[in-house]
Amino acid sequence: LLCPCLIYGAYVFLPFDAPLLPTVSARLVYALRCATFATFPIVLGMIISGISRLCSSALEPFGELQQEVEIHRTYVSQSVYLFILYFFNMAVLATYLPQELLKLIPLLTGLFAISRLIFWLSYAIGRSFRAFGFSMTFLPLLAMLLWNLYGMFILEPENVLS
């Protein structure tokens, strides 16, 4: 319930517009550039994971990981998986959206990055709190997937593979 409200509020109240992108290749480059910002929480997680592994009191570097090291490692691996799904869906979404809705691409990117940070924080606090951050990441991803499938098979079935 919160994700659509956040996206709608940002869409209406943030004072920017997407540039004019008439071709599919220009839209893909735009999605690629926006997706670069979504890697920020993953890179930050990798840095913190490395620091926590370095500062860990484990005697064997390849032995069993401590909980604080395991939290960061799990966050990074899950974030990479979700980013791959996010990126492919974002690239396809950029090809189907009309020009006036292309403002959603950077907004969804920002939502992805913020939700991964919220997930990380809630995961570090307690594993039972992580559902909120995960749902803020996964539900918009699911909505993008459904829209992409709708666009491919209902709106333009003749261009599915072209």
List strands and helices in order, with pairings:
Elements lengths: L1 H12 L10 H15 L1 H15 L12 H30 L7 H22 L4 H26 L7
Helix pairs in contact: 1-5, 2-4, 2-5, 3-4, 3-5, 4-5, 4-6, 5-6
Largest sheet: none
Order of helices and strands: HHHHHH
Say how many strands there are: 0
Looking at the structure, the CATH topology is: Four Helix Bundle (Hemerythrin (Met), subunit A)
As for the number of domains, it is 1
Any low-confidence stretches, pLDDT <50, length ≥5? none
Count of runs of 4 or more consecutive helical residues: 6
Alpha carbon gap, first and last residue? 35 Å
Q: Give the assembly state of these chains.
A: single chain
Helix vs. strand class: mainly alpha
Q: Which structural traits does this protein have?
A:
transmembrane; 162 residues; elongated; membrane; single chain; transmembrane helix; Four Helix Bundle (Hemerythrin (Met), subunit A); TMM79 protein; mainly alpha; 6 helices
Structural write-up:
With 162 residues, the protein is mainly alpha-helical. 74% of the residues lie in helices and 0% in strands. It is built from 6 helices and no strands. Helix 2 runs parallel beside helix 5. The longest helix is centred in the middle third of the chain and has 30 residues, at 67-96. The radius of gyration is 18 Å and the shape is elongated.
